[in-house]
Amino acid sequence: MPVDAPDLPLSSVLVPRLEWLSSIGSTNGELVARAAAQGWPDLSVVATDDQTAGRGRLGRSWVAPAGSALAVSILLRPRLPIPRLGWLPLIAGLAVARAADRFVSADRVSVKWPNDVLVGGRKLSGVLSELTTDGAVVVGAGVNTAATAEDLPVPTATSLAIEGATLTGPDPVLSAYLEELLPLYRSFVAAGGDATTSGVRAAVSERCATIGSRIRLELPGDIVVHGTALGIDTDGRLVVQPADGSGLLPVAAGDVTHVRPDAD
């Protein structure tokens, strides 16, 4: 069942503003709309456990039964060059993965570039970032918390509850996420958005299951590239060695329709 705002004591002390909504179409959409108003500083948060019109990358829908998932969006005002902002959803994904470590077996939690968090190869969470009109970034994460197998649309998805977590309430999960996200974000900003100097690039790369695997990239225009993911560059792009032996191909999240394991 959905919960009320007073049930969030652990999370509310971590950020300057936290708005819990009993139900909303999209936390990202709501926070993007609110961001231009006064009173919404860096690290402001909107969250719900009843998101009725959630969105993923490229406009894909993300909907879960009320009370079965946590949707959280955070407003970031890092004042960094645009190319560096591609790291923000990767940082959020790493934070979700580290938070999940607290509830399930840590050796099973990984990040799939560019925006998924997996447990045992099944999707636990997805991340979506959006620019606001004033140059800030809203980063949203949807985490399957109390969902049962029947709640989930595909067998390749999972939840904290399915993976054996005993604590799946919004406050424990949200506070764990924020506790992991805030130091990563602050270190990244303090380093001027340098993912290498801040240690973010190494941390994300270590947790990223995509690196080292054979993948199939599906690009706009029905272009398909088979290759091996070698790493993540300084701008957060996935560096791929195409199987045809051509030069290294760096791809940004916005340039990719799908990243899939390659069985060819």
Automatic annotation (TrEMBL):
It comes from the Bacteria. GO terms for cellular component: cytoplasm. The keyword Ligase applies. Its EC number is 6.3.4.15. SUPFAM superfamilies: Class II aaRS and biotin synthetases. Residues 3-189 form the BPL/LPL catalytic domain. The keyword Ligase applies. It is an enzyme of class 6 (ligase). InterPro entries: aa-tRNA-synth_II/BPL/LPL, Biotin_CoA_COase_ligase, BPL_C, BPL_LPL_catalytic. One of its GO terms (molecular function) is biotin--[biotin carboxyl-carrier protein] ligase activity. Keywords: Biotin, Ligase. This is biotin--[biotin carboxyl-carrier protein] ligase. It comes from Labedella populi.
